[in-house]
Write a structure and sequence with these properties.
Layout lengths: L8 H7 L11 E5 L2 E4 L4 E4 L2 H4 L8 H11 L12 H13 L4 E5 L2 H20 L5 E5 L8 H6 L3 H4 L9 E4 L4 H5 L6 E6 L2 E2 L5 E2 L2 H13 L3 E5 L14 H4 L5 E4 L10 E5 L1 H4 L15 H14 L2 H25 L2 E7 L2 E6 L7 H10 L2 E2 L1 E2 L4 E4 L7 H21 L2
Parallel strand pairs: 3-15, 5-6, 5-7, 7-10, 10-11
Antiparallel strand pairs: 1-2, 2-3, 4-12, 8-9, 11-12, 13-14, 14-17, 16-17
Helix pairs in contact: 3-12, 4-12, 13-15, 14-15
């Protein structure tokens, strides 16, 4: 019955809330780093569901884990615990600085939990005055009202009434900007080690170390939002491992489930102790299906073969993008880390990133943008070399088309 109804892109405009503007084609099937639409047209996927599909589409390990768990138990809620959640939490604590894990369903929910925990920790350890949260301009931490206010893009949080208070924003990669605002009243600093939505901007090592030092000086918690950078995306399980900085709280989602919705907040036992029973929760958080899939993803991703392969694939992308740029002169730089890369448009093409996205789709390639000036690539961490080559050949055609249209 479910397949009998004709479905077209026009149906979206008829039945869906208009907060999205999806592409004209509807993907119906995926395998590895290739996707097919309703007309059986094939695309190379460099978007990865916005850094989510870290093992591509329908990876056998994920399909097997979901099928096996789907035949056991789907949902219990947190009046009970379950084996997949406990196994996954153990693997996460073994692989990171963290000692305790809280499961949610998304990056926004993981960040919401992190912020609530930071406020509760500050209240109980230091008193009611210690409540300020500092984050960074152009940062992105989710769409709940708390997380979108902490995110440094007012356009996303304006227009919904009074915002949560005691939140300040400072300049990314500018330590003096943070130094001017942080004080003993600061309970937490939330930061992406590499800003994703804000333009694929890496945090400089000295800057991140300076943020850690200022947090220590003022007894504030350092929260790393690794929703986009985590789970192998930068070539280590989490990006903090390459920064020389260890956070107090880390959030994870996107690639954590490889396409199945799951989020996690990781922290130490001492900090976690402040979320006592009843202080926070989630009906679906720690769902057996999600955790079983995530455990399978982790078993594949957290291996030298995959993590080292991310760095090799990054070099392929950089070399081929530089070759395209040498020919067409559209980018000022290619920046990022691992397979979270941003091609920043030069002055001639400023504000035109969406044109490159649309032209890419015309040539059978799925890419992303990060603002109006950056074309973003977040493919599968195990994307085959031939798919990288084919995808970048298609991208070159798209670049040529955009350049010709502005000739």
């Amino acid at each position: 019955m479910s397949e009998a109804m004709p479905v077209s892109r026009a149906l979206f405009d008829e039945v869906m809330v208009p907060n999205y503007n999806p592409s004209a084609f509807i993907p119906v099937k995926g395998k590895g780093s290739r996707v097919w639409d309703q007309d059986d047209r094939e695309y190379v996927d460099f978007a990865g569901g916005i850094a989510v599909n870290c093992l591509g589409h329908c990876h056998p390990a994920m399909v097997d884990a979901l099928t096996e768990q789907g035949n056991k138990i789907w949902h219990l809620a947190n009046v009970m615990t379950n084996e997949p959640a406990l196994r996954l939490a153990k693997k996460l604590t073994q692989a990171t600085f963290a000692e305790r894990v809280y499961f949610a369903n998304s990056g926004a929910e993981a960040n919401e939990a992190a912020l609530k925990l930071a406020r509760r920790w500050a209240l109980e350890e230091h008193g009611v005055e210690k409540q300020q949260i500092i984050a960074f301009q152009k940062g992105f931490h989710g769409r709940t009202f708390f997380t979108v206010t902490v995110g440094g893009q007012a356009a996303y949080s304006d227009g919904f009434g009074p915002k949560p208070g005691a939140i300040e924003h400072v300049e990314y990669n500018d330590l003096s900007s943070l130094e001017a605002v942080i004080s003993d009243q600061t309970c937490a600093v939330m930061i992406e080690p590499l800003q994703g939505e804000g333009g694929v901007v890496p945090g400089e090592k000295e800057f991140l170390a300076g943020v850690r030092n200022l947090c220590d000086k003022h007894n504030a918690l350092l929260i790393f939002d690794e929703v986009q950078t985590g789970f192998g995306r930068t070539g280590t399980l989490y990006a903090y491992e390459q920064s020389g900085v260890t956070p107090d709280i880390l959030t994870s989602a996107k690639a954590l489930g490889g396409g199945f919705p799951i989020g996690a907040m990781l922290t130490t036992s001492a900090i976690a102790a402040h979320l006592k029973p009843g202080t926070h929760g989630s009906t679906y958080g720690g769902n057996p299906l999600a955790c079983a899939v995530s455990e399978a993803v982790m078993d594949v991703v957290n291996t030298p073969e995959v993590l080292n392969g991310v760095k090799q694939r990054e070099q392929m992308f950089r070399e081929k993008l530089q070759a395209i740029n040498a020919k067409y002169d559209v980018f000022s730089e290619v920046r990022g880390q691992g397979l979270l890369l941003g091609a920043a448009l030069n002055d001639k093409f400023k504000g035109k990133s969406r044109e490159f996205l649309l032209a890419s789709a015309e040539h059978g390639l799925m890419v992303l943008i990060a603002g109006a000036d950056v074309v973003r690539f977040t493919p599968s961490l195990v994307i085959p070399q031939e798919d990288i080559e084919e995808g970048l050949q298609r991208f070159e055609k798209a670049v040529a088309q955009v350049v010709a249209s502005h000739g």
